[in-house]
Amino acid sequence: MDARLARFKDELESQHGLITIAQLRAGHLTDDERQGLVARRVLQRVRPRVFAVVGTPDTWERGLLAAVLSIDGSVASHASAARLWGFEPRPEDRYEITLGRRYRAELRGVVFHSATTLEQVDVAQCSGIACTSFERTLADCTTHLGEYQLGHALDNGLRRGVASLRRLSNCAERLESGPGRHMSSIRHLLAERGMRFDPGGSRSEIQLLEVFRRGHLPAPVQQHRVTVGTKTYRPDFAWPELRVFAEYYGLPFHTGASAVVADSQRLTALASAGWLPLVFTHVSTDREIIERTAQALNQRRVVRENRL
User: Fold this and answer.
1) Among the listed ranges 134-148, 174-188, 227-241, 274-288, which one has the minimum average pLDDT value?
2) Which whole-number Å values give the CA distances from 131 to 76, 78, 84, 111, in the listed order?
3) CA angle, 263 as apex, 251 and 267 as ends, to 5°?
4) What is the pLDDT at residue 255?
5) Mean pLDDT over all residues of the chain?
6) 136: left (phi over 0), alpha (psi -120 to 50) or beta
7) Can you give the three-state secondary structure of the chain, one letter per residue?
8) pLDDT-based confidence at residue 250 (cuts at 50, 70, 90)
9) From the CA atom positions of the chain, what is the Rg in Å?
């Protein structure tokens, strides 16, 4: 690293190799010195008022952060924030930025949003980039994702500990619907779950998901909602198009008389509705899990093809 940039080591490491003019000036690097570094191809301008150290990886995150740093007070939002928070599914990748004020800005490849309501609680840091909170991002994506997709992203966020139903409820109280936001979808998700909702995803279930992945099996849907009669069930994993579901029965949640009765009723109801159950426990080997699941999926796939 150039000796003149050594004093900015912390900023460069935390900002994906980026530095702003304001930061350079605060570190007593003159404009003439900066221009000299650009001329010698030590620094390169990537956005207005934002420079990158030549040779640092030009990643998607670096490109997003450069756009955010170029406009004071802006945060990554919508599709960009959805990617940062790991939404699955998520809107199509693109750079989107929100400002908490009216501001006419144009940056190549960037979509801008002006927010009349963007409080401090709506702003967070993810991957070193200022962005809308998980809950605000979910609300902002209501016109791009269906309710089932929003619910799947929310439940996944709850399992990972990056989302909160309480924060989402507070967000829903502050925001209103508009051309780019359907808050009725968020309120429906909250009403459907309740504040004590448990999305599942125990360590054993997460390990089971990893076995599916290692076995190159089709990715299942977690906590898929299945309604049978007047009751709704959420199997740990499901392949809805083939009507196959998998459960992990571990201790102590599936022991005792009441648990046995509940599990029996659950399996019976789903099976009567045409679902093929797969039940695994702590004694199920990875090979057994992969082979039984593959066999079940192939069996249902053949049946479906024969019906077409």
Assistant:
1) 174-188
2) 4, 9, 8, 14
3) 130
4) 45
5) 88
6) alpha
7) CCHHHHHHHHHHHHCCCEEEHHHHHHCCCCHHHHHHHHHCCCEEEEECCEEEECCCCCCHHHHHHHHHHHCCCEEECHHHHHHHCCCCCCCCCCEEEEECCCCCCCCCCEEEEECCCCCHHHEEEECCEEEECHHHHHHHCCCCCCHHHHHHHHHHHHHHCCCCHHHHHHHHHHCCCECCECHHHHHHHHHHHCCCCCCCCCHHHHHHHHHHHHCCCCCCEECCCEEECCEEECCCEEEHHHCEEEEECCCCCCCCHHHHHHHHHHHHHHHHCCCEEEEECCCCCHHHHHHHHHHHHHHHHHHHHHHC
8) low
9) 25
pLDDT at 70: 95
pTM across the whole model = 0.65
As given in the structure block, the two tokens for residue 270 are 């789903």
Looking at beta carbons, which pairs linking 154-161 to residues 24 or more positions away fall under 8 Å?
Answer: 154/189, 155/199, 155/200, 155/201, 155/222, 155/223, 156/86, 156/87, 156/88, 156/199, 156/222, 157/85, 157/86, 157/87, 158/197, 158/199, 158/201, 159/199, 159/200, 159/201, 159/206, 159/222, 160/86
Which tokens hold the place of 111? 């979509």
